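Standup notes, protein team

Yesterday: finished cleaning the Clostridium perfringens set.
Today: Cell wall anchor protein structure.
Blockers: none.

Input for Cell wall anchor protein:
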Amino acid sequence: ETVNIEKVNTASLGGVVLTKKDSKNGNLLEGAVFNLQDQQGNDIRTNLISDENGQIILNDLAPGDYQFVETKAPEGYELDATPVKFTIVVAQKEAVKVEKTNILAATNLKISKIDSNTKNPLNGSEFEIYSQNDTSNPLKFITTGSSDQYEVNIIGESTLMANGVDSSFTINKLGYGDYILKEIKAPSGYKLGKDIYIHLDKINSYYKIGSDGEKIDLNKDESLNLYNINVENEKGIVLPETGGNGFITQRNIAIMVLGISFILMINFLINKKRRIN
């Protein structure tokens, strides 16, 4: 009896290392999700997640052409589904190394200045905005297209001005994160408003008036990728050479009037008693 022995040639397997990075600073990004596909777009493996070193490592790929396609970006970053193509060759000695970068997710933020009672627009306010990670150095901006449209740029200026028909300005392409909006100049006849603490992310954005204020949810205009915050000012009376911001509220005025009236009444009673004696 003749025995036929068939020799099977098994192609050597190869490997690939995908490294996920921040596009600006090169930081390694954990939590990105990819599918591995052939170059016709057919899924071979799904839900591959970058580890704490920003890497996805595969060591058992047959020779051929492949691509990684991102299906979920790391938290706080924009999704980029552009395929990352690579090839595994026969008798590969080292893993193929490929990189994929992401830019920080961004949104647009409109600040509108209004009177706290009438809700009418107020011109003349000036602001600065700080990252909550660096409260000593305000962000800098350049205007884009018109005087009420700003964009972060390190060569710009820190002052943001609320003017125009609706007394507002818009910061475009502002990265998700935590910020402090600080009014540095109030409209004429008004006192400075409290600092506004702002949290922006893809899922739950909100702001607080003062560091210990209640959270106020922000709703996005999806068509414009825009959040809007109304910043209110209370009226005050300018007191020359008072120091500080030079304002006192109507409540404080009432207290002062009552105090002066009380002192005058005491003086009147004392003088009356003296005359009787």
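Follow-up from PR in the comments: Helices lie at 250-276.
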